[in-house]
Amino acid sequence: MYIVFEGIDGSGKSTQIQMLKEWLVANGFRVETIVEPTDTKLGKLIREILQRPDATSEKIQNALALLFAADRIMIMDELEDESKIIISDRSFISSLAYQGNPEWVSVLNKYAKKPDLLILLDLDVKKSVARTSDDDTFENEEFLTGVKENYLKLAKNYEHQIIDANNGVNKVSSDIKKAVAPYLGLCSDCIR
Ligand code: TYD
C-alpha cells in the first residue's frame, strides 16, 4: 500500500508520518517512509533553488517542476516493494498544488505512482504562516491560500481522507489512524 501525506507547509506531515509508522509497526506491518524532495544531491539543489528571491516566478516554477519530477523518478523503484507499506511525505500531488501549470506538471509526472490513499492534512493558512516563520519562498499567505484550494480540489481525484490539522498532535494522530485502519483491516473503534 502506498500512502501519501500532503498539506501546506507546517501542516505536521513529518510528525504525523512518524506516529502513524510507529502504530503500524506495533500492529505488525513492515513500513518504509519516503520524503520528497529527497535527501540526495538533487533534493538539496531543489531546496537551494527554493530559497531564491525569484523562486515563485513562472520560469523558476517550470524548472522546479522538472527537478521535482526527476527527483521523484529516481526513487520510483522504492515504491514497487509490495511487502511493505510505503508512507510518503509529499508526491507529484505537491507539484500539482504548488507549481501550478497542470499540463506541464502532468506530462512530467506521467509515470509517477498514484497513491492508494491520500491523507490531506488540512491546516488554516494563518496557522501555517505562524508555524513556518522562516522566509521560505512558498510560505506566504496568498500563495498558500491558493495551494490549499488546489489541494482540496485535487484530493477528489484520488482515494482520500481529509484530516483537520488544526487540532493538537494527538487528536490529529488518532484521526489519521481511524482513517487508515479500515484500509488495513484494523479496528477503527479501538483507537482512542
Ligand atoms: P517540505 O520538505 O515539506 O517543507 P520543509 O522545508 O518545511 O521541510 O517541502 C519543501 C517545499 O517544497 C515545500 O514548500 C513544498 C515544495 N514542493 C513543491 O513545490 N513541489 C513538489 O513537487 C514538492 C515535492 C515539494
Give an overview in words.
By secondary structure, this protein is α/β, with parallel strands linked by helices. The protein has a single domain (2-186), classed as Rossmann fold, CATH 3.40.50.300. Helices cover 46% and strands 14% of the residues. Strands 2-3-1-4-5 form a 5-stranded parallel β-sheet, sandwiched between helices. The two termini are 24 Å apart. The protein binds thymidine-5'-diphosphate. Thymidine-5'-diphosphate binds at residues 9, 36-37, 50, 68, 90, 94-95, 98-99, 136, 138.
What is the CATH class designation? Alpha Beta
Tally of contiguous helical segments: 8
Strand tally is 5
Average pLDDT reading: 95
Strand order, main sheet: write it out.
Answer: 2-3-1-4-5
Tell me what portion of residues adopts beta-strand conformation.
5-15%
Which fold name corresponds to the CATH topology? Rossmann fold
Shape assignment: globular
CATH architecture: 3-Layer(aba) Sandwich
Keywords:
globular; Rossmann fold; alpha/beta; binds thymidine-5'-diphosphate; single chain; 5 strands; 192 residues; 8 helices
Would you spell out the secondary-structure blueprint of this structure?
Blueprint: E1 2-7, H1 13-26, E2 31-35, H2 41-50, H3 58-73, E3 85-89, H4 92-99, H5 102-108, E4 117-122, H6 125-131, H7 141-155, E5 160-164, H8 169-180
Parallel strand pairs: 1-3, 1-4, 2-3, 4-5
The chain binds thymidine-5'-diphosphate.
